[in-house]
Amino acid sequence: MTGADIRRDNTLSIVGIGYGGDVTARAADLLGRADLVVGHPDFIGQVAHLLKPDTEATDVVADAEPGQDVFALRARLAGEALASGRRAVIVTAGDPGLLGMAGPTLSALRDQAGVQDVEIVPGLSAWQYASAILGAPFNGGLITFPLCLHGESDADVARRIRSAADSGLGTCLYMLRHNGEAHPELFPTDEPAVDIALRRFAMVRNAFLAARPGDTPAVIVSDLDNERPRRVTTSLLDLHSVWGEVSDTSVLCIPGERFTADSGRLWTVT
Question: What is the mean pLDDT of residues 82-99?
Answer without folding.
Answer: 91
